[in-house]
Amino acid sequence: MTTHGHSSATALERPVRVAVVGAGAFGTLHARAFAANRDCTLVSIVDHDEKRAAALAESVGATASHQSIDDALSSGGIDAVSVVTAGAFHLAPTLAALDAGASVLIEKPVVLTSSDGRILREADARAEGFVMPAHILRFAGAYQELRHRVRHGAVGAPRALSFRRHRTADHDTLFPDIHPVLMTMIHDIDLALWLTGATARTVSARQVEAPGRNQPLAVWAEVETTDGASLSFQVSWSLPSGSLPDALEVIGDAGALSLSLSPRLHDFDAATPAIDDTLTPDAAHGALREEIRTFVDAVRFHTPPAAVTLDDALNGLTLAEQIIRSAEQNRCVS
Ligand SMILES: NC(=O)c1ccc[n+]([C@@H]2O[C@H](COP(=O)([O-])OP(=O)(O)OC[C@H]3O[C@@H](n4cnc5c(N)ncnc54)[C@H](O)[C@@H]3O)[C@@H](O)[C@H]2O)c1
């Protein structure tokens, strides 16, 4: 087996053959985005729940459905696998796909612990294919514009960044086994590292518990970077319904930038009246389609994508673990 053998300049002369693993809410969006990409063929939808896999396969026109990734891979000819299982179940299908020579788009959090991260990194290093973490916000126009401005000096040197992301309380029952830092704050951790290129020096976090809950209600974290900048993160799974705009502020020594991401499109007759036109719209381009286009092109052209790397995701995971440790132990960690 070659190390990242995907180095030749010639593109595949046929559509990339894709399997989507996990036919839940987000797997459905992945499958639709692959189905809309003309450079790939959706070969299989995989889910332990056979009926769910078959129903999604039929609705997006996938060739087949399977109950396990091994069945899909042994049916042959799969170039690329999108892993959209729940967070605790990302590693096994990813390792199976890499072992079979396929490349993998892996949802966030890529894995839940650094030790699984090391297994993933080793598997990626010896694989013919590559792993691309699905950090969707890197593909969203608003965040790309903000980063472009920061990089071109709009605020001078970024000195203080704050991130806010509140989600509905039902996340606690939907994702009982995953800490909100790993499930939700991980988006902002990735954005912070992507925007600043910073390394954390100290982490001080607190989590707020509430009776009857599996996970903390809220987590507040302050991170000092090695160059003396301050990163501030707020996350909660608290809203009874609806949403608060996700917010990001960058304070520099020569200016400030603020971003607020809320739905811009409303359909007042619909069951879900706020339409997400930036990340996962039903039509036109959104961040998910852009992320999937990047992945499919990387497989077509045999080149691991530079837009987001496995090391980026694993650096974010390390900081997430430090925040959780600080919050659980209620002390500052270095
Ligand atoms: N980027 C984002 O903004 C975003 C948003 C939502 C969800 N996600 C991520 O997407 C992933 C899936 O989330 P979801 O809400 O769709 O989850 P879900 O629980 O609704 O669906 C997961 C599906 O995977 C199946 N499954 C689990 N393990 C499997 C395995 N080993 N093989 C085959 N099928 C398996 C389950 O039967 C289920 O149908 C999670 O990692 C989540 O963090 C990302």
Automatic annotation (TrEMBL):
The keyword Transferase is annotated on this UniProt entry: no
One family name in Pfam for this protein: GFO_IDH_MocA_C3
Keyword NAD: yes
Keywords on record: NAD
SUPFAM superfamilies: Glyceraldehyde-3-phosphate dehydrogenase-like, C-terminal domain, NAD(P)-binding Rossmann-fold domains
Occurrences of domain Gfo/Idh/MocA-like oxidoreductase N-terminal (ranges): 16-133
InterPro entries assigned to the protein according to its UniProt record, in alphabetical order: Gfo/Idh/MocA-like_OxRdtase_N, Gfo/Idh/MocA_Oxidoreductases, GFO_IDH_MocA-like_dom, NAD(P)-bd_dom_sf
Domain GFO/IDH/MocA-like oxidoreductase per the UniProt entry, residue ranges: 143-257
GO function terms (MF aspect): nucleotide binding
Classification via Gene3D superfamilies: Dihydrodipicolinate Reductase, domain 2, NAD(P)-binding Rossmann-like Domain
Official protein name in the record: Putative dehydrogenase
Protein's organism: Microbacterium ginsengiterrae
